[in-house]
Amino acid sequence: MGEARDISGCQYQMLSEFRFQIRNFLRFSEKTARESGLEPQQHQLLLALKGLPEGTRPTITALSGRLCLRHHTTVELVNRLAERGAVARNHSKEDRREVLVEITEIGEELLRRLSDSHWEELKKQGPALAAALDELLAHSGESAEEYR
To answer: pTM for this structure?
Structure first.
């Protein structure tokens, strides 16, 4: 891992504030998902599926990578969403062995409502999150503008 560099009390406070702001948004996201009848990871799977990078095939492997989950965990999430009618599995036309996950109209509607409330919350919490990131990056010699 290498030798750890010295970190000042101020830097710990900045890291703590950034972590707090991220956690604040995630807590909102988890609560909102549950209120809509989804587990947070199910919401994340729907979002990952809808937001896959262009050209990425919607396989369990691709979704597992985007969610940072193990294959079998992603399979279980897909199973539960399929039971709700939010996603469907279809065999690839090119390779019948390959199974592709597709979002259904039910899943689209769930995701649309959740995403709308998330956008609204980001309008409220975004400035504090961005300020915490800017502060961190300013003390590391970089700025958030370089990442936008």
So the answer is: 0.86
